[in-house]
Structure formats: structure tokens, C-alpha cells
Request: fold
Amino acid sequence: MIENKNILIFDTTLRDGEQSPGASMNTSEKIQIAQQLERLNVDIIEAGFAAASPGDFDAISQIAKTIKNSSICSLARAIDGDIKAAGEAVAFANKKRIHTFIATSPIHMQYKLKMSTDEVIKRAVHAVEYAKTFVDDVEFSLEDAGRSELPFMKEITQAVIEAGAKTINLPDTVGYRLPSEIKHMVQEMVSFIDSMKSDAIVSLHNHNDLGFAVANTLAGIEAGAGQVECTINGLGERAGNAAMEEIVMTLKTRQDLFPGITTNINTKEIYQASKMVANITGIEPQPNKSIVGKNAFAHESGIHQDGVLKHQETYEIMKPEDIGIEKNNSIVLGKHSGRAAFKDTLSHLGFDDLDNEALISAFEKFKAICDKKKEITDDDIRMIVTDEKLNNNKTFEITSVQISDCSNGVPSAVVTIKHEDKEITDAGIGDGAMDAIFKTIDRITGYNGTLINYKVNSVTEGKDALAKVNCQVIFNDDKQAVLGHGLSLDTMIASARAYVGALNSYLSIQNMLNNK
Ligand code: KIV
Ligand code: ZN
Reply:
């Protein structure tokens, strides 16, 4: 049994997580998530894949300049151009890593790479050596390790460790393996690396195609892995990656099975991280999701409620407070609260990094909402501030939206937008109220948007709940869709804000590309 060991947490929400359909984020969204990952005390943040696009490169380099404690990592294929981009993107980080990979399974080598095993080893060794010219800390992944053959895995591992790799990652890329198999693979690889007298760490990166990502990760920890790769809310390619909150809370809750196995994660930041990732990507965890789902701590049956009231541990193996859920997420502020109380609540919720302008703007939004909504909860405040941060680019700003009665006649909208200190008003018609709003926004701004995804959620319960809209829009037939976020007590206004937010995001990306 492995005892007394600190497991490194490598978060890949911003890279593999972003590969979830519909989860692509812009730079300011990624910076916000990176800051929250730093509050969580994540050891390594995989901030993106620098060679994938100028947007990815920009996000990684800005994160590298912003984050002080966590190590910042970029993914790179075992190709010089990728490694150079990765090295340049992380150059300004306090702590930096390049994560390079090549596939090692027979099926990938034969059909995808069309390379012999010798060629794969040669490419891997060159990649590690080249990465070492940019950073000291190089991680090497045997892509599709889950379906690779152990003798070849050992051969390539020996070669890349000799070339300077410090972490050997064994991804179960297609989520094929079961815990007993992962345990065996890790045991074999750990004892092989020990036999080399190397202190390289074995890392796991499990996908969830058969639902075993977290179980496989825990089995790997039992077998001696020293690092685990995971994402917030289990976001990730296809069925996702192992969920960080589940791994960390299992290790904490089952110390009887994992004695002295710790992580550096500040678990009280888990709920905030989950909410932030859901708000930014628009991908909410399912209600019954472990640890962070809406129902994870909700006891419906009277017997359970009675038991928990008498003694919390009768039906609860963890406390909601352990992951940062306040005992009761109820009224925290009201319409008479001043800016000092508002600021105090923000700092208690972990938002101490708002600049003065953002604070004033968030406070104004809060006051406007207070006029119409009796009870303002922690979740409302979280959303107000997240919305303020997400919409800090105000090239275009919705001032007002009026829609006609849609039950009779042609739906129409009158929209006023602020742009460069001028207010522009126009009216338009559409196939529904929302369509009329979006078409009118297009007319005013001169950009042509195609809505490809639209989601509305309520922040809390009740008729006066805030509506939170996430949409994905393609502007002017661009290849890349952009995300927009809107918040309001009125769904139509939230939708208009989300659409304009997406346009602002599109414009800042265009701006960045033009300045390259
Ligand atoms: O799943 C996978 O194999 C990956 C690698 C690039 C690490 O994401
Ligand atoms: Zn992956």
C-alpha cells in the first residue's frame, strides 16, 4: 500500500476541457479560470495548446504572465514548430513546463502516424531534447498508453527519461481501461522507472468513455502514480476527463484507504471553481453529479433530512462547507447594503481581484437587481461578478431592449446600443422576439451573426430568479464560434447582452489577429 505521498494535481480544464464540444473560451475567460485554479492551489495548469491557434498562444502567454504560484504548461506534439510555440508561450511564467506527446499504441502508430516503433522513439527523444532547450521541466505523454504494449512503453520511457523528461504521462486516451488494468500498467511502469534509478514521476490522464476515469485514476494512485491530470466538472474531449473534485474529495474522505495521500488543493475553492467553469462554458454539471451537482448535498426524503439534522454524518460523508458551499446560500445582501458591504461579500466569496471600475459597475448591477429582487444570494453575487468580468470588453453595450406583444402580429424589437459614447437605436422584425432582437443588433452593429447554440438557466429558484444566458455565435461567416454571456432578471435582455458579448469577444479576437 502506498502511504504518505503528495499527489501533484495537473489541471487540463483549459486544454482538454476546452476540447469539449461548445466549450471554447476566449483569453479573458481563460485568465479568470486560471486565477481560480491558482486559488485552488493546482500544481500545474495546462493552459492550452500553443501551436493550435494564435488565440491559444495569446491565452497561454497571458496566463504565464499573470499566474505566480502554479506551473504553467503548454501541450505540443512531438514536432519542432509545436515545441517552439509552447516554449515561447510559457516563457514568462514563474514556473513553466512543456508537455509533448506522441502515440505509442500499435493502432495509432500504424494508421495515424504511419511510423515504425524506432521512428517513434527517435521523434520522441528529439522532442524532449528540443523542449529542454526552452524549459527544464518537460513532460512526455505516451498517447493511447491505455492500448499500448508494455515492452514498447518501457523502451520509449527509458529513452525519453534519458533525454531529460521528468514526468511520464500514461493517457488512457480513449477511456478503454478498467481500474485493475490501470493498476497493473502503473505498477509495471513505476517499478521499471525505479529500476532505472530515475526519479521521474508517473502521471495519469484518464478519459471517461466507459465511466471509469476517476476510478482508474485512483487505482493508478494506489499503484504509485505521483501526478494526476484532471479537469473541473470532468469537462473534456467526448465523455470528458477525470473530474478533479471527485479525485481530491475521495482522497480526503477515504484516508482509511489512502493513508497520508494528500494533494495541495484548497478544497474550499472547489464549488467556486465548478460554478465558474459552468458559467463560462455554459456547460452545467448534471444535477446528480458527484460533489458539485445541484443535488449533491440536497436531501429530499424526510428520513434523510431528519437524520442529517440529528447528526450530519448519518447521511453525509462530506460536509458542503468542505468544498466551499456556505451553510445556507441565503440572503447575503439587500437593497440597503452599501458598497463596503458588497465589497466585503465579494472578498468572502474569493473575488478580491476586481479593479475599481469593475467593482463600481458590478455594484451598479447589484443595486439595479436589488430594486426588483427581494433576496440576493451568494450564487446571485457570484453570477453578477462573473458576468462583469466576462463582459469587461464593452465595445458595444446594450442600453435597452423593448419587444412588441408577440401573441398577435409580427414580432418586433427596438434596441438601443452604446458604442463609442454614442447611443444608437433601431427597430427590426423577426420570426420571434429573440430573432427580432438579434437581427436588430446586427443592423445596428453592422455584423452578421449566426446563432449556433443558445442556453438559458436560472441562477437560483423562484419567479424573480436571475436569468443567465450563454450563446455561441458565428460572426461574418468566420470559422470559429465565439461564446457570449448575459445576465438579467429579464430573459430577453440577458439574451441581447449575451449576443452582444459574443460580438465583443469576436471583435477582440479580430483585433488581436490584426495586431499580430
Ligand atoms: O487524451 C490524451 O491522450 C491527451 C494527450 C494529448 C495527453 O489528451
Ligand atoms: Zn486527453
The pocket of 3-methyl-2-oxobutanoic acid (ligand 1) is lined by residues 16, 75, 101, 141, 143, 171, 173, 205, 207 (CB under 6 Å).
